Amino acid sequence: MYYLGIDIGSLSCDAVLIDDSETILASTVVPTGARNLEAIARAKKEVLASAGVSEQAVSSTISTGYGRDRVDNRLAAVTEITCHARGIHALLGDIDLLVDIGGQDSKTIRLDPQGRVVDFAMNDKCAAGTGRFLEAMARALQVDITELGQLDRGAGGNLTLSSMCTVFAESEVVSLIADGVELKWKASPTADVVQYVVYFGTSENNMELVKDLKRESNQVEYGFTDRRPLKIGRFIYAVEAVDEAANKSPLAIQELRISNKPYPNPFTPLSSNPRFNRVTFSARGLEEAESEFTVKIYDIDGGLVKELITTSGEQELNWDGKNEDGELVESGVYIYQLQVGERYATGTVIVAK
Fold first, then answer.
1. Residue 197: which H helix or E strand, with range?
2. What is the C-alpha separation between 32 and 49, in angstroms, rounded?
3. pTM of the predicted model over 0.70
4. Alpha-carbon span 63 to 76, nearest angstrom
5. Pick from 10, 96, 300, 325: CA 20 to 30 A from residue 49's CA?
6. Fold of 2-78
């Protein structure tokens, strides 16, 4: 006999097929998308085809997840909290605490020795601390979400986000990147190191020297901020230590990715925080960067709201949320057209008062 389990989450629809001995015969994960009924049908079809089992041979189906009530012909619909507890106990045995970072909420579940739920807590009012938040941070840093756990290795300092709201935190990360690249590192424990050399480039085989620092006695940390305007793309910084005999250490490398999207987006013109009360448009990524740089902002009906013009060579323009008459615009979505020379870029920016 065969048993089918389907988990319909906000991001993915997961299906697994087991037999009488609780052996997993097949499993699949498909995007939920906007039509969860289609996702359910696809997940069921894929898992049955993979196991070579017909739908008629399935004895019973159990559903879970936020869309669990949409599964037809189910034996029961069970909360994901109960399913988490049963599943982790079956797989790993004696587990006291389970943490689930889902697409739209996160849960911590405390279990007894028999795998029963003793207590749980979850956030279901905000995307902060969920998979959506991690996706937003990966998008802002332009890395794959699987790389987030490795990014802090070798970091020489900390940055504080003033907001844990997913939307505003993403905008603040983009803003912090645009403020300049700060490098910090600990002094080498080797006593005969006399200087540190910092390189910058697009790869280890294509770098230039950007900073040369002498080692000072009793100094335990070194660093500098690179405020040069950078175009969008992937870059690396590398630091090497040099001793008295001109021997060089292996390069310590830090990767950087720059985006050309407006930041912060959305922004709040009435905020007292200068990071959030204006939006910055960047000419990075467009050719002819030495040409005049203009941004035209339109409302959703196509009416011109504001035109921003900068002098030749500048690569950033700021909008404070006011129209040509100096009045604050209403909250909503606005369309921008960015032009440098003959090059154009368009997009949307959100004003949230």
1. strand 193-203
2. 19
3. no
4. 7
5. 10
6. Nucleotidyltransferase; domain 5 (3.30.420)
